[in-house]
Design a protein that fits this description.
By secondary structure, this protein is α+β, with helices and mostly antiparallel strands. Helix 1 crosses helix 2. Strands 1-4-3-2-7 form a five-stranded mixed β-sheet, sandwiched between helices. Helices cover 41% and strands 22% of the residues. It is found in: Membrane.
Amino acid sequence: MCTSLTTCEWKKVFYEKMEVAKPADSWELIIDPNLKPSELTPGWKQYVEQHASGRFHCSWCWHTWQSAHVVILFHMHLDHAQRMGSVHMRVFKQLCYECGTARQDESSMLEENIEGLVDNLITSLREQCYGEDGGQYRIHVASRPDSGPHRTEFCEACQEGIVHWKPSEKLLEEEATAHTFSEASKPRAQAGSGYNFLSLRWCLFWASLCLLVVYLQFSFRRPAFL
């Protein structure tokens, strides 16, 4: 049973994508607020998403804020014999810096952001649980401006010793370039095909005009029969 709209969205996206990625195996996603970094049961693997984007809402003073430094911890295990896998997940909270309350609040995320984060999770699953080449991880901060310095004293993940990794400028540029190139290639191809079509049409027009001129000249030069 889902405890929040965001939790339901996470489960929905995860199950749909895993059904496509590994249809022969059965996977479950469990939200575990007590999950600890690097404290793994034998046979389990860990993946940390360090640059997710989320919105926080203070339940005390109603202050809301956007953060590009949301940390998500995953512990995952696959039983190859039973073909069953399990992922335990924890989204770290942040304190409200407006009212100074000690209550830590959860984040909410858009569905499009969750889909990209699940893609990264599945990439890690394929690498660590299946020994496959999972592909390239998506860098979610590439398409948005930096939200400013991260205030570690208000971050639950920082307080538990998780060091935030920020992608280098080169990686951000590569991610942004790859995205813009894929979007721009299709319009350029369409524009090129329109130009070729226009040139062909004018060639046909001038060829027809030349044939008409030749025909008229030949008609005027023929002798008249009385």
